Amino acid sequence: MPADAINYGKLAEELHGKLSDGRIDKIIMSDKTTLVLRIRARGKNNDLLVTAAASPRCFLTANAPKGTDVPLSFCLHLRKHIGGGVISAVEALPFERILAFRIRSRGDLGEPLAYTMYVEIMGKYSNVVLTDGSGKITDALKHVGFEESRPIMPGLVFSPPRDETRFDPVDERADALASGCAPDELPTVMVNRLRGLSAVTAAEIANIAGTSDIGLSAACRKLLARPADPVVYYDGGKAKDFSFCPLASVTAERKTFDSLSEAMDEYYSSAGAGDEKSAALTAAKRAVNAALSKQKKKLAGFERDLASAADYERERMFGELITANIYRINKGDTALVADDWYSGEKVTIKLTENSPQENAQKHFKRYQKKKRTVVSLSEQKAETERAIDYLESVDAALDCASSLSDVEAITEELEGEGYIRTQGMRRGKTVSEPRKYDIEGYTVLVGKSNVQNDRITKEARGDDIWLHVQGFHGSHVILKSKGKEPPRSALLRAASLAAFFSKARLSENVPVDYTHVKDVHKKRGAAPGKVDYFGAKTLYVTPEAPEKE
Questions:
Q1: Rounded Cα distance, 452 and 394, in Å
Q2: What do you get for the CA distance between the two ends of the chain, in Å?
Q3: pLDDT averaged over the chain?
Q4: What pLDDT score was predicted for residue 401?
Q5: Are residue 443 and residue 525 in the same domain, yes or no?
Q6: Residues 318 and 209 occupy one common structural domain
Q7: pTM of the model
């Protein structure tokens, strides 16, 4: 039932009871799509989590994420307009996955102002939109351009989406859907024809209708009349679904919670975060693969063009041979046969211009043009090879990503390098720290992205040990030396980590180079994570999964 309008309707009732007349004391953003509003109500602090990420959701959480070091623009906008404001009501738009937070605030001169913060839980179209008292949009988490059917931009009047091809499940027209429809097909038909229903909800309404001998509309009203008794359903110990009340149509193992927010917090902590990470990882992988494919096509094109221009020295030789044999060329000659100065073989040069001098000049011009082309293409080819190398290193980092924040940090790196377009807003930086391990009393840091690789290497002491797998893409590893040479056993374990967090993690006897950080240098303009190093020694290790960070 996640992201079901029935569920969010019940959540709105719960949030209204807990948050109405509550003051918004704090607003943070933990990443580009996630907000936390701290609301003081009934003598208690409540953290409202709102995210429009791959797994969108909104509820009160006991596990609020930390905010970014640099506030994002939308966060600053909310602080300006509704920070310190009071929530007057929380409503759910009928049979829509949209929550409306009505807020009383004050302007710069103390004048009373009214705002509404709409939270839209609609898959990839999820958004957070702030409107003023007239219904005009002041700003939104994601801007939607005029090329879309429903633009979301400051200054426009907010209009909720409405699918006119469907009707509300309490509408008596819903009753006709059961006519001539097989019982096992009815839930699917309901999802396709009615607003705001998930497959689980539709199955429950169909079950109520069948066991009570009533129409679907009456069955929906009966479901809505049930008191809240939130549950989470499990499959093999993993949270599978949640609902505001127990469902007769679901027989899985379940656990009851005191509030729907608590149930949702449990569900998304157990299952949703993994799903969100998986979705973000899939999207990032898709972007990397698309960029790699594009760069490899460019490389193939450059190689073809270079092959066709590679004979530019031959053009120069033809011009010089014509000039040297000008006395042998008669008017009307169509070709010159001369000795190749380098091979000693006879070559035939076509003469297409009016005079020998013009023929020679033609080849000299071709020589200059092809030479310039080769220089330019060689530079572009080298740049493309560097791009491919960089993207392959990003792909390696994604393979090692262990959390959603890791994936988001890598995604932001791709955006910064221009491989992914930033959508919807000006973004800040996702909070992500390097992996950290203790090996025999020595701290070992492992970068999770190329940007992070650069950072941990730059911030390390000159006598710290830098490690990297040889011949493969992988993480930078820093072994903090504490001003002395670490024992070989610690070096071997750190090298094993470098091998594990690389493209060689499934190999054996992997070579890992190590040297002091002072001998690691980054060239100006080099891609993130790209360095040169000197004086390295090599260890051969078998990659081993690390112990818990």
A1: 12
A2: 35
A3: 88
A4: 83
A5: yes
A6: no
A7: 0.59
Distance CA 359, CA 353 (A): 5
Q: State how far the Cα of 424 lies from the Cα of 149, in Å rounded to an integer.
A: 16
Radius of gyration of the chain (CA): 33
Other beta carbons less than 10 A from residue 27's beta carbon: 23
* Contact present, 62 and 38 (Cβ < 8 Å): no
Tracing tokens 């190329």 back to the chain, one arrives at 450
CA distance 525 to 527: 7
Reported residue count of the chain is 549
Same domain, 490 and 537: yes
* 369 part of a folded domain: yes
| pLDDT value of position 549 | 60
- Total domain count, the chain: 4
**Maximum CA pair distance of the chain?**
110
Better-scored residue on pLDDT, 309 or 500: 500
Pair (85, 9) in one structural domain: yes
Report the alpha-carbon distance of residue 103 to residue 23 in Å, rounded: 9
Quickly tell me which residue has 């791709």 as its tokens: 414
Which of 130, 150, 126 is CA-nearest to residue 139?
130
Looking at the fold, whether 183 and 108 belong to one and the same domain comes out as no
- What does the pLDDT read at residue 424? 42
